[in-house]
């Protein structure tokens, strides 16, 4: 069994390493499968006390898991881009991730744990081509680091990147906590659809509806207590992956929107409230007059979008979120774009090195 696992891992390693070696004559299907050379991401450079850091900005696909992972690796100094470069191909970014996975193999791993680690590596390498689009994750509402274990979780474990979310039930709501005990997001959606208990149905619907931003005050508090000062993580929220940092007892999300590519005063965005009333800060986590103006403009734009969406939802014959019977597993199953059923180990073997670093 170990020989089979090692063989599978080696095949995946070979496939990933061939990403950067494919020629321009490859078929379109092959190129899409391993990341496109023509699909590029722009690079933003920021200076912090004389040290230059690169940040990869999002393209039309939005803040994908590839982007969040790459920016964590860049900010931790585990990978580097040529100084002064303005863009990087998707294929090159995928190669960076694959190389990091192979380089981070623990040197002192126990022989008994080796088969589990190699199987996790094999599963993760097979996931790499899907990083630009999305990953299969399913949260639990009772802990910021609680996720149903999938190969996606193994990816973050092997890279030693904390994967977190902020959709947490208030500890004072014991009745709701008891109702969702041990249930993941997908299981709760299934329960809403299938249960005949009106009281339970209402409680679950009300929680999902009242926390539609997928961030709660309890979640922010637990993120602050679970992350160390100077630590960088990946935040999963609203089916997107974002680079998250804790600095001086405050939380910040990396701004990767292309509209801010040339704005040196806008690098991070505060994460301190659930209503989106945030503030932009620069690379040193300081605010400026210009960043405040830009934050207000961004808030006005988001408000206009929300009003537009509300008007669309109020149109005749259009089902509304949770207000009608049409709440289905398909409507709420945004966390699982491609369901994966394969049974995995309950915990990946983590790399021995801990990259809990103070960047700035």
Automatic annotation (TrEMBL):
Q: Name one Pfam family in it.
A: MINDY_DUB
Q: Per the database record, which ranges form the MINDY deubiquitinase domain?
A: 40-285
The answer to keyword Protease applying to this record is yes
Task: Tell me the keywords, alphabetical order.
Answer: Hydrolase, Protease, Thiol protease, Ubl conjugation pathway
One Gene Ontology molecular-function label:
K48-linked deubiquitinase activity
Q: What class of enzyme is it?
A: hydrolase
Q: InterPro entries this protein is in? A: MINDY (IPR007518), MINDY_domain (IPR033979)
Reactions this protein catalyses: Thiol-dependent hydrolysis of ester, thioester, amide, peptide and isopeptide bonds formed by the C-terminal Gly of ubiquitin (a 76-residue protein attached to proteins as an intracellular targeting signal)
Q: What is its EC number?
A: 3.4.19.12
Give an example GO cellular component term for this record: cell periphery
Example GO biological process: protein K48-linked deubiquitination
Q: Which family would the database say this protein is a member of?
A: Belongs to the MINDY deubiquitinase family. FAM63 subfamily.
Its job = Hydrolase that can specifically remove 'Lys-48'-linked conjugated ubiquitin from proteins. Has exodeubiquitinase activity and has a preference for long polyubiquitin chains. May play a regulatory role at the level of protein turnover.
What protein is this chain from?
Answer: Ubiquitin carboxyl-terminal hydrolase
């Amino acid at each position: 069994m170990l020989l089979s696992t090692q063989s599978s891992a080696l095949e995946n390693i070979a496939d990933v390493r061939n990403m950067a070696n494919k020629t321009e004559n490859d078929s379109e299907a092959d190129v899409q499968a391993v990341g496109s050379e023509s699909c590029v991401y722009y690079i933003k450079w920021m200076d912090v006390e004389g040290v230059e850091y690169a940040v990869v900005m999002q393209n039309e696909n939005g803040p994908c898991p590839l982007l969040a992972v790459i920016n964590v690796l860049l900010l931790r100094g585990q990978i580097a881009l040529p100084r002064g470069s303005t863009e990087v191909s998707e294929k090159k970014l995928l190669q960076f991730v694959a190389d990091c996975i192979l380089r981070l193999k623990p040197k002192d791993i126990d022989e008994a744990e080796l088969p589990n680690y190699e199987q996790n590596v094999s599963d993760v390498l097979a996931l790499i081509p899907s990083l630009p689009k999305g990953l299969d994750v399913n949260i639990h509402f009772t802990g910021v680091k609680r996720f149903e274990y999938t190969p996606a979780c193994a990816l973050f474990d092997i890279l030693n990147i904390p994967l977190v979310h902020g959709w947490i039930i208030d500890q004072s709501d014991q009745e709701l906590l008891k109702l969702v005990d041990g249930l993941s997001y997908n299981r709760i959606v299934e329960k809403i659809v299938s249960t005949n208990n009106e009281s339970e149905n209402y409680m679950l619907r009300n929680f999902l509806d009242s926390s539609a931003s997928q961030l709660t005050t309890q979640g922010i508090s637990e993120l602050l207590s679970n992350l160390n000062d100077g630590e960088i993580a990946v935040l999963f929220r609203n089916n997107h992956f974002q680079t998250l940092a804790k600095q001086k007892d405050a939380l910040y999300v990396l701004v990767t929107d292309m509209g801010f590519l040339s704005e040196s005063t806008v690098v991070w965005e505060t994460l301190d409230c659930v209503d989106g009333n945030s503030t932009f800060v620069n690379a040193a986590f300081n605010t400026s007059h210009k960043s405040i103006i830009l934050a207000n403009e961004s808030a006005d734009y988001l408000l206009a979008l929300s009003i537009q969406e509300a008007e669309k939802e109020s149109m005749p014959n259009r089902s509304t979120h949770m207000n009608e019977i049409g709440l289905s597993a398909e409507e709420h199953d945004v966390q699982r774009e491609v369901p994966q059923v394969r049974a995995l180990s309950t915990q990946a073997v983590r790399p021995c090195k801990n990259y809990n670093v103070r960047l700035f």
